[in-house]
Structure formats: structure tokens, C-alpha cells
Amino acid sequence: MKLSPRALNRMTLQRQLLLERSSLSPVQVIEHLVAVQGQDVNPPYFGLWSRLASFTQDDLTSLLHDRRVVRGSLLRGTQHLALADDYAWLRPLMQAPLSRARQAAWGRVMVGVDLDELVALARGHLAGRTLSRPELRDLLARRWPEADPMALAWSAQALVAVVHPPPSGTWNKGGATPFTLAEEWLGRPLDAAPRVERMVARYLAAFGPASVMDVQAWSGLTRLRPVVEAMPLRRHTDLDGRVLYDLPDAPPAPEDAPAPVRFLPYFDNLMVAYADRSRMMTAEQRKAVCVGAIVHPTFLVDGVVAGMWDVKDGDLLLRPFGPLPEAVMAELAEEGSRLLAFAGAAGGSVTWRPAGLRPAA
């Protein structure tokens, strides 16, 4: 089946629960999304608020305290929130990209450090307790006093499965990041041999249809083509002839489905889930939204990126990429007021900056 850009967009929005807010529970939505980007502490809350019919900050905070949801390094080697049960199989799959990123960042300053010994020593230091990165860094530096101490700590975080227990990672609780061994926090060992097909199927359920390159861009894994092509998947093509894979029983989404305005937070996975992001934004917009390691918060109009936003000093600042109809501006202002109320800034105002594509301030 050949998919038009609009058909692909609507299918994506439906999978992402952005055509209409979902009545699912926060646990069910986090499971559906596989993992929620948690590079900063507040964005996961905004991302869930935009997708759920009923959601409060306490809903997610309590899940983190109850250990039903955990925060740690997962997709693309970056911080994510995932169900504890999903972390147990997803984290082992992510070891390859985590090791690759560690080598690229710290390999040259780690000459002479035996990585197996580093892993064993780090696990020993963390056994039965929680340490901050500086505390772990200082302990490891006793063994390798001539090595870069930050390289030791970051390498341990990449090579040892650790999670960051609350209150770290909860609403407005940034700062120092504590480490604890994932197996001890979860109360179970990680899966010894998870199947990558499970990850691909879960990705397609939340982000499909998608190409092999899209799956790899989202996950950080490579060489997935043989895996994907061997799975019993439905095949579509886009207007450029690219093959897009999907689950055989994936629900359809009508091209004429209305798409209300939505606010997506910093680092939302929808903005980085594809090698080809044209279903959500233009190439020019991508340069403004995705700047280095930063993925700026965006708002969607008719299902596609139409500008960026931020909350500063209790006010919501909107910067559209082009002129918007008055009705759309009114809809954005109304939704923006609800966002401010969720953030605890109900008295704040919605303000506008001149339209246009400019580097984010």
C-alpha cells in the first residue's frame, strides 16, 4: 500500500495518542510508548499530559516511588522512563549503543583501564547502596588515580545497569543524579537474552509505519534490516518508494481525521523517532527544533510542527514558524492555558514572539 504524507502523519498521531487524549492509565501509556524520554525531569510529565485524558503530576511521581516506573539510560544511550518490567529486557538490548557511545566519548582517556575490572569494582561499590556520580567517581579514582575521573564515572554508568531512584527525576527535582544497581532496585535480574524482535514490534505499535532506518534512529541499534525483513510484517511504501513496515493488525487512521493542537515537550521521542522526520516537520524546521543534543519543545497544528514553546517565569512563550489563522491562535492559547495550569502556573499568560525560523534562544 502506498501512503501519502498525510496518511502517514495521521497513522503516526493515532499511535502516539495525539489525535485524541487517551483514557488509558499512565502505566498503560508508558508501556505503549515503550519508553518516555527523561533527559530532563519535567518533560515526561508534559508529554504524558498531552496524551492522557486524566493525568496529574502525582500520577507519575508515585509510579517512580513505587518502582513500577524507573529512570535510566536506554534508547540511544539517553535517559528514559520505562516500566520496570520493560527496563529488564530493554536495557540489555541497549548495551551495544551504550558501549559504543562510551568508547567514542571516553575511549582515548581510558587507556590502561581494564573495563571488566571497572565493571566489577563499580558493582561492588554500588552493592546495597546508592551513590552519586561524584561519590562513585572518587571511589573509582582510588584504583586508577591517573585516569580521567569523570571518564571513570561515565564509563561505569554506561557499562553497569543502573537506575536513578526518586526523588531524582520527579517533578522539579533535578540536580545530582544518584545511582543504584538496577537488579537491586527492580528486585529481579535483567533478562539474559532478550529478543530484538520484541523491541521492533513495540516500536511499530507506537511509532509505525516505519523504515528500518527509522527503527535504528529511534533505538540506537544497527544492522536491524535482516531482523525486520524476517518478521511477519505488513509492507507499505511512501511516495518516494521507501519501504515502511507495520504490524499486520495495526489499526487504520483516516486521512481526514482532525488533529487538535498539541504541545510536545523537550526531547519528546516523536521528534527523534525517525531517520526521515518529514511526517512531522520540514527539513528547515528540523534544523531549528533539533540543535545538537537538544530537542526543543514544539507545538503541533493540524498534526505537524508549527512552532516552538517554552515556559519562562510562569508564562508560556509561543514562537510559530509562520503566520497562523486567528482560530488556531485561539486554540493554542486555550490549550496553552491548560498547560500552564498543569505546570502550577495558572496565573501565567500566553505570549507570542514574531513568527519565523530562527535559532532557539
Would you give an account of this structure?
With 361 residues, the protein is of the alpha+beta class. Among the domains are: 27-186, no CATH class; 281-352, no CATH class. It is 40% helix and 17% strand. The chain is built from 15 helices and 16 strands. The protein has helices at 5-15, 26-32, 43-49, 57-65, 84-93, 95-106, 115-126, 133-143, 149-159, 182-186, 196-207, 212-219, 225-230, 283-289, 326-342, and strands at 2-3, 36-37, 69-73, 79-83, 131-132, 162-163, 178-181, 234-238, 243-246, 262-264, 290-291, 294-295, 298-301, 304-312, 315-320, 350-352. A 5-stranded mixed β-sheet has the order 10-13-14-15-16. Strands 1-8-9 form a 3-stranded mixed β-sheet. Strand 8 and strand 9 form a beta hairpin. Helix 6 (95-106) runs antiparallel to helix 9 (149-159), helix 7 packs across helix 9 (149-159) and helix 8 (133-143) crosses helix 9 (149-159). The chain is globular, with a radius of gyration of 21 Å.
Major beta sheet summary:
5 strands, mixed
Number of helices: 15
Q: How many runs of DSSP E, i.e. beta strands?
A: 16
Overall structural class, as computed from helix and strand content, comes to alpha+beta
Strand order of the largest sheet: 10-13-14-15-16
Strand fraction equals 15-25%
Mean of pLDDT? 95
Organism: Nonomuraea muscovyensis
Protein name: Winged helix DNA-binding domain-containing protein
InterPro entries: AlkZ-like
Pfam families: AlkZ-like
